[in-house]
Amino acid sequence: MLAIRDKRDKYAFGQLFDHFAPRLKGFVIRSGAPAGQAEDIVQDVMMSVWRKAHLFDPERAQVSSWIYQIARNRQIDIVRKEGRPMPEALKAEQDDGTPDAGQVLALEQETDVLRDALNRLNPDQREMIEKAYLGELSHSDIAEATGLPLGTIKSRIRLGLDRLRHELKDLR
Q1: Which pLDDT tens digit goes with each residue over 117-162?
Q2: Where a domain ends, among 54, 73, 94?
Q3: Last residue of a domain, one of 94, 114, 140
Q4: Are residues 68 and 112 in the same domain?
Q5: Pick from 117, 128, 127: which is nearest to 163 by CA?
Q6: Where is the RNA polymerase sigma-70 region domain positioned along the sequence (predicted)?
Q7: 3-class DSSP state for residue 147?
Q8: Distance of CA 80 to the CA centre of its chain
Q9: DSSP calls for 83-110
């Protein structure tokens, strides 16, 4: 995102688009939009990301949070414009801007369980998972940063995720 913001890097934007577009589409569909409209929203959101990249501040938000907020706002605008009733998934967050206390408590509990499960992982596996999912680095970026072979990184992530799945199976 910084390369897009600072250098208007089209290659970086392509990578960002490839990463977020399918995730955004799923997010928008789960929030009540039909598939065709979801694709239009994703296109609008990604164009906004390109046009408004100069507004991104890594001190204020993660890239994913910033992009998902743009998507959510765009979807709310469309729902209002069409005069449709607000989907529950959007309405819950829209009411007064404060999250539901039950949702906050549940999220905090799930976060604690995840943190404990991550801490029980092999340190090498935990490091790779944190870099890939919390640091939002690609496997290639991790290989470049650590000097480890790509296959080693992929194996550590896969084994770590398998163990996390096993540890968190009751969370579902």
Answers
A1: 889 999 999 999 888 887 778 898 899 989 999 999 999 999 999 9
A2: 94
A3: 94
A4: no
A5: 117
A6: 16-84
A7: coil
A8: 25
A9: TPPPPHHHHHHHSSSSPPHHHHHHHHHH
